[in-house]
């Protein structure tokens, strides 16, 4: 054995020992996130789509249990209470049982544009409104996984991972077994794991075989999702910031695309390149027997500070460029979001870090943005569609 190989092997053994020590320290079930989110009568009513008066009436008539009360008499509801209210009043915000989940890829090949932040916040937004959500973290960096309180290190010896499901070298093929619970009762996650990068190399290696092997490599995620698509309303995909086999799997599995673009000159220009690359990649997928057809494509301005030099102009340019494909509201850059994500939380899970008014403004802004995305999602379900005829991409194309 050469000196180099034996040195590397020694380092590997040393790393394995350290890994086991890290695992025993990192994975402490008692440290897991506990959700502490409650709602007053007005917020609760809004989230279930009724007026506070309607809820009060149902409580008075005994159709709903009376709400919990704090020591000072203020009434409040928990997430579980909201679920009970929906069940009792027959409120079904999601798809019909026989319909498929809408699979939204939050996709941009550029790094740091807000993909994971949007994925986490949109998942929480949907869960608050009673939707069943599956988040699939396809990025080996695992930021979304961490925000759902799973440490990728804890999955090291786990066989049932996304990486193993995707890898043609692995025999693990029951996608549903890679799904984990989160602190949110109606959000599940397929976490990223350290082996995801290896899986991408294994998928890429099929290029040498060509034909059927490449097609299967491009469709792995799509096939996995198909096996659970009736169980969720919305499936969110958080891809890595690069185009490779993982990114292609995400594009092949998605049924709708949300493209985050910050209001910065460089990101704007790289998005032009991105749109081109998307089109090229769709052609690659088609050439390998994997046609895709998105129900919607929307660009979202993912960080905007109107007072920053140049950003207001960028926002105007984005509106002129993307027209109807751009969500009408930009996501404002906010210390609230920054602070929350640094603590691995969404603002929906955290308390105001500065004034309540600033926090509420940030929340209202995100809600307005996600209301628009939800509208697109709903239109994909025939049972809920308010669309009139022409498919979105053709019908509402930039005028
Ligand atoms: N609206 C916002 N206001 C303030 N900070 C934001 C906002 N959106 C995202 N950020 C911050 O920008 C940084 C990058 O965001 P994020 O990790 O979501 O990007 P990403 O596209 O997923 O990156 P990567 O390509 O590395 O996966 C994070 O620190 C996040 O907190
Ligand atoms: Mg990310």
From TrEMBL:
Domain named AAA: residues: 103-270
Domain of life per record: Bacteria
Coiled-coil blocks: none
Entries under CDD domains matching the protein: ParAB_family
Name assigned to this protein: AAA family ATPase
Biological source species: Novosphingobium cyanobacteriorum
């Amino acid at each position: 054995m050469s000196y180099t190989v034996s040195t590397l092997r020694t380092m590997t053994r040393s790393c394995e020992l350290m890994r086991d020590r890290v695992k025993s320290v990192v994975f402490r079930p008692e440290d897991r996130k506990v959700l502490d989110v409650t709602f007053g009568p007005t917020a609760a009513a809004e989230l279930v789509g009724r007026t506070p008066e309607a809820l009060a009436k149902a409580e008075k008539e005994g159709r709903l249990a009376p709400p919990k009360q704090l020591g000072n008499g203020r009434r409040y509801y928990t997430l579980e209470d909201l679920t009970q209210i929906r069940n009792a009043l027959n409120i079904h915000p999601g798809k019909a049982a026989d319909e498929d989940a809408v699979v939204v890829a939050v996709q941009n090949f550029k790094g740091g544009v807000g993909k994971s932040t949007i994925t986490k916040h949109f998942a929480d937004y949907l869960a608050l409104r009673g939707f069943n959500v599956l988040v699939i973290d396809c990025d080996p960096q695992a930021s979304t996984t961490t925000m759902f309180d799973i440490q990728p290190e804890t999955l090291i010896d786990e066989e049932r991972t996304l990486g193993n499901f995707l890898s043609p070298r692995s025999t693990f093929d029951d996608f549903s077994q890679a799904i984990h619970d989160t602190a949110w009762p109606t959000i599940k996650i397929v976490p990223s794991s350290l082996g995801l990068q290896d899986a991408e190399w294994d998928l890429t290696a099929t290029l040498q075989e060509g034909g059927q092997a490449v097609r299967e490599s491009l469709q792995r995620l799509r096939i996995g999702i198909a096996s659970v698509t009736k169980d969720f309303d919305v499936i969110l995909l958080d891809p890595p910031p690069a185009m490779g086999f993982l990114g292609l799997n995400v594009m092949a599995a998605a049924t709708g695309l949300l493209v985050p673009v910050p209001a910065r000159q460089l990101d704007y220009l790289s998005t032009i390149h991105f749109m081109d690359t998307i089109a090229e990649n769709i052609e690659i997928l088609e050439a390998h027997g994997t046609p895709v057809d998105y129900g919607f494509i929307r660009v979202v301005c993912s960080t905007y500070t109107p007072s920053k030099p140049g950003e207001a102009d960028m926002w105007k340019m984005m509106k002129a460029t993307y027209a109807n494909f751009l969500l009408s509201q930009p996501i404002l850059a906010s210390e609230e979001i920054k602070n929350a994500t640094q603590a691995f939380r969404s603002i929906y899970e955290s308390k105001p870090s500065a004034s309540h008014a600033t926090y509420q403004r940030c929340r209202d802004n995100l809600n307005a943005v996600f209301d628009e995305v939800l509208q697109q999602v709903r239109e994909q379900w025939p049972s809920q569609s308010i669309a009139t005829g022409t498919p979105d991409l053709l019908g509402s194309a930039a005028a």
